[in-house]
Amino acid sequence: MSLPFDLEILKLASIPVTAALVGWITNWLAIRMTFHPLRFLGIAPWLGWQGIVPRKAEKMARIFVDSSMQRLGSVPELFEGMEPEVIARHVQQVLRPRLEHYTDDVMIASKGEAWERAPLAVRRRVYQAVDEQLPRLVQNTLADVGEHLESLLDFRHMVITRLVQDRRLLNRLFLESGAREFRFLIDSGLYFGFLFGLVQLVTWLLVPGQWQLPIYGAVVGWATNWLALNLVFRPLEPRRVGPFVVQGLFLRRQKEVAAVWCAIVTREILTIRRFMSSMITGPHGARTRQTLLEHLEPVIQEALAAAGPLAQLSLRAGDLQKITRNFGRKAIEISADPFEDERFNEERSQVIERMLRERMEAMPPEQFQDLLRPCFKEDEWILILLGALLGFLAGVAQIYFVFG
After folding, report:
1. How far apart are CA 220 and CA 20, in angstroms?
2. pLDDT band at 311 (very low <50, low <70, confident <90, very high)
3. Does the structure show a pLDDT above 90 at 91?
4. Three-class SS of residue 239?
5. Distance CA 91, CA 96 (A)
6. CA–CA dist 20, 194 (Å, integer)
């Protein structure tokens, strides 16, 4: 005789349990669908899905530049923070042992056998002159670059290109800096879902009806997503509620988040290697190359003058321009060499990281939330609607498989 009673108890107990599972699953799925898959999966353009962040990678990258980087420091400030004088010394140390080889390559390309037949003493004077001019060349070029950096480097293009090409890195910026918040978003679905389920159970006991199951399921799926998102970012400022001080979970961890976020940014995006590469190959690369040629020409003139009258007599009309162009091409070809040193890149990254962390930790909450909030603002309604839909379907399943 006890079996029907026990079965009825189990059915009633399934209401809050199901609500908890619906809350957890919808929140987990919402986070999953925010970042995955990286590429569109399905039949384009409508039948399938791509993570919201990867799908809007270019827009997210623009938000990243505008809402975060512009507030943390200008491009000249970042370059100055990398300590150009240290960069200059490093460039000289890397290039100096290879100068004779580089000079030979350029002079053979410019003068052919005439350079190879030149007396060793003449070639050595040229080598020595180039070596003596190297510090001035590097220091003057870097000083000029620093002074006109904003016209030589398209910072937006550099950052956006990096993040669009590597959507996994874009995901990391959000997932690693907000790891605790995403964990909370998922787990909270279980707790809030169970609480909503208890309310549903009371309603069921007062006014029984299977129609409640899909309706409450939709409410649970919608409410758990909405509530969890708001608890992450609201309130902006700490507020006292009785004996407790409450603030958005993400905002309470400002120092921890700044440490993670800056470590990724300074090692994957704002590296000295990428700065220099973007100046040479980016949209303003022609200006950078012209700047380099302007600094090379007087150096080459002095180096050839040091070679002596015999070498000067062997120069024909147009040779100086040809040698300058070839030196320019060689300089561009080897421009990346000094910045392939991983230890040097790490040292420069640490310097910039300290600067950015100090500024990020001092950000007001309304600006700091923009680091993570954009990934939810984009199509947030889809995620909440998806939670409601899944909750509704779970309620329909309860009708057929539990109460049917």
Report:
1. 9
2. low
3. yes
4. strand
5. 8
6. 4
Amino acid occupying residue 157 = H
Q: What is the pLDDT of residue 376?
A: 64
The answer on pLDDT for 368 being more than 60 is yes
Calculate the CA dihedral of residues 362, 364, 367, 369 and round it to 10 degrees.
90
* Sequence-separated (6 or more) residues with CB below 8 Å from residue 365: 236, 237, 247, 248, 251, 254
Residue whose token pair is 């024909």: 316
| Gap between the Cα atoms of 328 and 289, Å rounded | 8
Report the distance separating Cα 17 and Cα 198, nearest Å: 9
Report the first-to-last Cα separation within the chain, whole angstroms.
21
Q: How many residues does the chain have?
A: 404
Mean pLDDT of 316-321: 70
For the question of whether the overall pTM of this predicted structure is more than 0.70, the answer is yes
Specify which residues 240 forms β-bridges with: 245
Give the C-alpha separation, 12 to 181, whole Å.
32
Q: Assign residue 318 a region: left if phi > 0, alpha if psi is -120 to 50, beta otherwise?
A: left
Q: Which of 200-204, 231-235, 279-283, 350-354 is predicted least confidently?
A: 231-235
If you search the block for the tokens 């990254």, which residue do you land on?
Answer: 349
Candidates 147, 133, 74; CA nearest to 295 is 133
pLDDT at site 2 = 47
Three-state secondary structure call for residue 50: coil
How many CB atoms lie under 10 A from the CB of residue 338?
20
Instruction: Mention every residue, 6+ apart, whose C-beta is less than 8 A from residue 57.
Output: 163, 164, 167, 170
